[in-house]
Amino acid sequence: MFVAADHGGSAMREHADVAIALEALGWRTLRHPVHVWRRNVRAATMVSGNASVQVYFDPRSGRERPLTEPDLPTDVVGHLLELPAVRLAAWRDQSGGVTVAAGAARARLRDEDGRIRYEPATGDPLGLGGEPFTADDRDLLSRTLAGELPDAPRQLLQLFRSPRAGDVVLAARVGSDFRGPWEIPEHKAGHGSLIADHMAVPIAASVPLPDAPLRTVDLMPTMLELLGVPLPPGLDGVPFSRLAQAAGVGA
Question: Which of 40, 94, 130, 217 suits a disulfide with 237, CB 3.0-4.6 Å?
Answer without folding.
Answer: 217
